[in-house]
Amino acid sequence: xxxxxxxxxxxxxxxxxxxxxxxxxxxxxxxxxxxxxxxxxxxxxxxxxxxxxxxxxxxxxxxxxxxxxxxxxxxxxxxxxxxxxxxxxxxxxxxxxxxxxxxxxxxxx
Length: 109
Fold this sequence. Notes:
By secondary structure, the protein is mainly beta. The chain has one helix at 10-15; strands at residues 26-30, 35-43, 47-52, 54-57, 69-72, 79-85, 88-90, 95-98. It is built from 1 helix and 8 strands, in the order H-E-E-E-E-E-E-E-E.
């Protein structure tokens, strides 16, 4: 992801490198500054589908940058279909971090 063009977060930019997706593996959609955690549910040679997990805050830090979550599968969660492009895995311009679940909400926006 290009910092300042595809993401406004240095952390999201650094997370956007990747490994090969596998069914059952965790993944994180990288929005402008927020992140959505999920599970990879389908893989083809040129695409993979990630379904958003239930992410429940486990800290008591309020509107803070320090956030921790507990994740459980959500069979009704939002689906993200990523396609392999020249710039890596993309879903409507969004990047992804494969192999990690890291929900994050930026309260400054």
